[in-house]
């Protein structure tokens, strides 16, 4: 008997209500085309598999019962779907994905892979190598037209579910307001990946991660200095990095002060607000 | 263990660097009695192994935040501290075993 939620009782393909995560990794396409492609593949293969919470190629693995969720990587693009049964609050699935992707993004960003994408709520079919459905179409469109910078944004519906959960007043629902998301200056919600990792991972080396993050962003700003479109994406990360240093300034006091962690090679002024 | 052992058993455990247990993870503590036995039975499971075992989709969705909550409270610990997220394996600590045996 097939246990996949994406297949009906008679073997017919189904669209299933899911929280969908889609993102691409900046610079991976260029790495795949460069003269160092094999070396880049080796580095990418190890990092993405070690950082990803579920097995890559997990659509097949889920169908075989060895992965919790279907997930796939195609060149520089990653798709994960978390089915939402009727009894499961959609906000829980959003919360879960935001927390997991925060840790994943932090691992990848500190290894010089910056993610840009979206989390959506809606229907998708994800089975036997076939991905189809409006939630994926929306996520891809948001990645291209709204995310713009290396951030994973929440669709309007996904954002509304989090806000609704907070307003319900039930203590169980209140926790969703703790999801690691921030509001950017354009009003768009995005995953606050460094804070998510710092909150959900007690074992993380906070100053060490911030130092690494600083190092890779400064390196990108230097390398992309003659390409404004690429440089500006990393400028956004620098803005986010500096805002995060400010948020954690008390914890950084014993490590030379938060000023020592700032990216000071450019002027940053952007403000990010909590949900 | 990255947690200040003096704060274990309190409502707000603290990491050695001063970070506090996020209050929004408290709601997941009610899954201890369902998930602690699974950590023990699976012998050093990864997040994915624990989630696969959860046939109830709701339980599957709480595995990840519950693991974070359990780690903050010193109930589980990593087998290898330096592993990246996808490779991390978890095991019960003495405190986790105590909680399992004396809920």
**Average pLDDT value of chain B?**
90
Q: Characterize the overall form of chain B.
A: globular
Q: How would a textbook summarize the main sheet of chain B?
A: 2 strands, antiparallel
Please report which band the strand proportion of chain A falls in: under 5%, 5-15%, 15-25%, 25-35%, 35-45% or over 45%: 15-25%
Features:
A: alpha+beta; 6-stranded mixed beta sheet; B: 103 residues
Can you describe this structure?
The complex is a heterodimer of chains A (275) and B (103). The longest helix of chain A is centred in the middle third of the chain and has 20 residues, at 90-109. In chain A, strand 2 and strand 3 (77-83) form a beta hairpin. By secondary structure, chain A is of the alpha+beta class. In chain A, strands 1, 2, 3, 4, 5 and 6 form a six-stranded mixed sheet that branches. In chain A, strands 8-7-9 form a three-stranded antiparallel sheet. Chain A has ten helices and nine strands. Chain B is mainly alpha-helical and 103 residues long. Helices cover 41% and strands 6% of the residues of chain B. Chain B contains four helices and two strands; from the N terminus they run H-H-H-E-E-H. Chain B has helices at residues 32-42, 47-53, 57-72, 94-101, and strands spanning 76-78, 90-92. Chain B has a two-stranded antiparallel sheet. The longest helix of chain B has 16 residues, at 57-72. The model of chain B has no long low-confidence stretch (mean pLDDT 90). Chains A and B meet through helix 2, helix 4, helix 7 and helix 8 of A and helix 2 and helix 3 of B.
């Amino acid at each position: 008997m097939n246990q996949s939620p994406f297949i009906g009782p008679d073997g017919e393909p189904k669209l299933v209500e899911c929280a969908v995560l889609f993102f691409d990794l900046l610079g991976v396409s260029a790495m795949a085309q460069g003269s160092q492609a094999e070396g880049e593949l080796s580095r990418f293969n190890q990092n993405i598999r070690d950082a990803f919470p579920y097995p890559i190629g997990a659509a097949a693995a889920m169908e075989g019962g060895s992965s919790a969720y279907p997930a796939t990587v195609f060149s520089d693009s990653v798709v994960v779907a978390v089915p939402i049964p009727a009894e499961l609050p959609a906000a829980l699935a959003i919360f879960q994905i935001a927390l997991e992707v925060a840790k994943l993004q932090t691992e990848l960003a500190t290894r010089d892979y910056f993610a840009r994408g979206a989390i959506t709520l809606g229907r998708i079919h994800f089975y036997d190598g076939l991905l189809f459905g409006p939630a994926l179409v929306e996520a891809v469109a948001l990645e291209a037209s709204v995310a713009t910078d290396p951030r994973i944004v929440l669709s309007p519906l996904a954002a509304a579910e989090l806000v609704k959960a907070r307003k319900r007043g039930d203590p169980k629902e209140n926790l969703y307001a703790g999801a690691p998301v921030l509001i950017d200056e354009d009003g768009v919600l995005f995953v606050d990946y460094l804070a998510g990792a710092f909150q959900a991972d007690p074992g993380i080396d906070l100053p060490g991660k911030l130092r690494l993050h600083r190092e890779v962003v400064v390196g990108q700003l230097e390398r992309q200095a003659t390409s404004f479109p690429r440089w500006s994406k990393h400028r956004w990360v620098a803005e986010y990095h500096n805002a995060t240093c400010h948020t954690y300034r008390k914890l950084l006091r014993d490590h030379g002060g938060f000023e020592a962690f700032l990216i000071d090679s450019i002027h940053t002024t952007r403000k990010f607000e909590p949900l | 263990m990255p947690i200040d052992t003096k704060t274990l058993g309190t409502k707000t455990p603290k990491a050695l660097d001063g970070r506090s247990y996020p209050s929004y993870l408290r709601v997941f503590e009610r899954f201890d009695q369902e998930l602690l036995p699974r950590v023990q039975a699976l012998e050093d499971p990864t997040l994915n192994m624990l989630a696969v075992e959860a046939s109830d989709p709701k339980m599957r969705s709480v595995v990840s935040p519950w693991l974070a909550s359990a780690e903050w409270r010193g109930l589980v610990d990593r087998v290898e501290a330096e592993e990246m997220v996808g490779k991390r394996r978890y095991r019960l600590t003495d405190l986790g075993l105590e909680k399992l045996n004396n809920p």
